[in-house]
């Protein structure tokens, strides 16, 4: 198994918020972000696909060998010397962009795209049993304004949207687990 993004832990140190154990959001840096739809992140990144992402994509009709760049999993740092196992989404032949990127910069799988795409250009980092929202270590997106005035900031909205996607994914995992328990798989 390959270990990628050795630099990622260091670069992802730009924390913008902490999710407290009671679910409250503690803002650490005031940012402003609005996606312009430039799709640069769909071109300059290798997109990690978790097993849940893969399950969702294949349940929507895609074959594994159609969508994965490399069948061997890679390990991606998530903080505290912990890693998660991920596969990488395939790139178009001879073009450095995701296979799901359409000619008009739209995502062909928008409603069920991988989790890392849903929360990009941000990421989740666990450190010392604490959970942080950080700027994604790739630093591809040029549309995040860091340290804006509080009144110009939309950090809370950004973090709430990220939390919404995380909860949706947790619900999916829970339903999957319940199904396994009830069918004895
Ligand atoms: S997240 Fe950033 S890089 Fe990606 S499409 Fe939006 S503005 Fe562009
Ligand atoms: S799955 Fe969609 S959002 Fe994610 S990189 Fe590919 S085109 Fe972009």
> What's the tally of helices?
6
Oligomer: single chain
Bound molecules: iron/sulfur cluster
Give the biggest sheet: 4 strands, mixed
SSE sequence, one letter per element? EHEEEHEHHEEHEEEH
* Arrangement of strands in the largest sheet: 1-6-7-5
Task: Give the CA-CA distance, first to last residue.
Answer: 27 Å
Low-confidence segments, given as residue ranges, are 1-12
Apparent shape: globular
Quote the beta fraction.
25-35%
Which structural class do the helices and strands define? alpha+beta
What value does the average pLDDT take?
Answer: 87
Share of helical residues: 25-40%
Structure description:
The protein is of the alpha+beta class and 185 residues long. It has one domain. The chain has six helices and ten strands, in the order E-H-E-E-E-H-E-H-H-E-E-H-E-E-E-H. It has helices at residues 8-11, 41-44, 51-59, 64-67, 115-119, 155-183, and strands at residues 2-3, 15-19, 25-27, 31-33, 48-49, 68-79, 82-89, 122-127, 130-135, 144-146. A four-stranded mixed beta sheet has the order 1-6-7-5. A hairpin with a 2-residue loop joins strand 8 and strand 9 (130-135). The longest helix has 29 residues, at 155-183. 22% of the residues are buried. The protein binds iron/sulfur cluster (SF4) (2 copies).
Keywords, separated by commas or semicolons:
4-stranded antiparallel sheet; globular; 27% strand; alpha+beta; disordered N terminus; binds iron/sulfur cluster; 6 helices; 185 residues; 4-stranded mixed sheet
